[in-house]
């Protein structure tokens, strides 16, 4: 009887220690919602995280919600950076970013303008290489696009070195997307792929900003710190609600 009691006690102690170690290894999570959405877009994610890692802090950025999400991107980034500066810059243990759709571009902007302490940036179905762009008008794009062209350092900007150095503070970049998304066009933009002048999709490593290493993407890849997850069968509005997506492609990057 005593032996059985001691066995159960050891099992409980082992489980407790495992949970404590796991909780200590999970960094706080900051989530940025997509276009025409709001912080409650993080609710399914928050539930998944709480089940997997009880007590983990998940903060959903409460800014530029619903129709306000169409405000110019630099306006959004410059406002949000002051809201999250303390967490992104001064968090001693670092944080993880999970950003969905347009939110992934906002988060990438934050990673460029702040000397951050972000561990993993998980970009979920975000048009990192653009959306519905026209590869036949590259000169006009670089001349008139004030956001993505500057962020990619495709145009002369005094902040080019700053953006690159800040971006490279990132430990890992995890990009999740898939062919059945139905919104991101081309869907490969979620992994830095985009059309060329012949309307053929060119993957990340064939893009000029990668070859030139204009903002540090090639350096990050050479370090072995870019992870691509291609997931079929998931529509755009279902990414953050899909338990399998969380379990297989997000959860593993929340530890360590």
TrEMBL record:
It holds the Pfam family Palm_thioest. Transmembrane segments: none annotated. Coiled coil: none annotated. It catalyses: S-hexadecanoyl-N-acetylcysteamine + H2O = N-acetylcysteamine + hexadecanoate + H(+). SUPFAM superfamilies: alpha/beta-Hydrolases. It is found in: Lysosome. Signal peptide: none annotated. One of its GO terms (cellular component) is lysosome. One of its GO terms (molecular function) is thiolester hydrolase activity. Its main location: other. Catalyzes the cleavage of thioester bonds from S-palmitoyl-CoA or S-palmitoyl-N-acetylcysteamine (unbranched structures) but does not have activity against palmitoylcysteine or palmitoylated proteins, branched structures or bulky head groups. Conversely, hydrolyzes both long and short chain fatty acyl-CoA substrate. Belongs to the palmitoyl-protein thioesterase family. This is palmitoyl-CoA hydrolase. It comes from Mizuhopecten yessoensis. The lineage of its organism: Eukaryota, Metazoa, Spiralia, Lophotrochozoa, Mollusca.
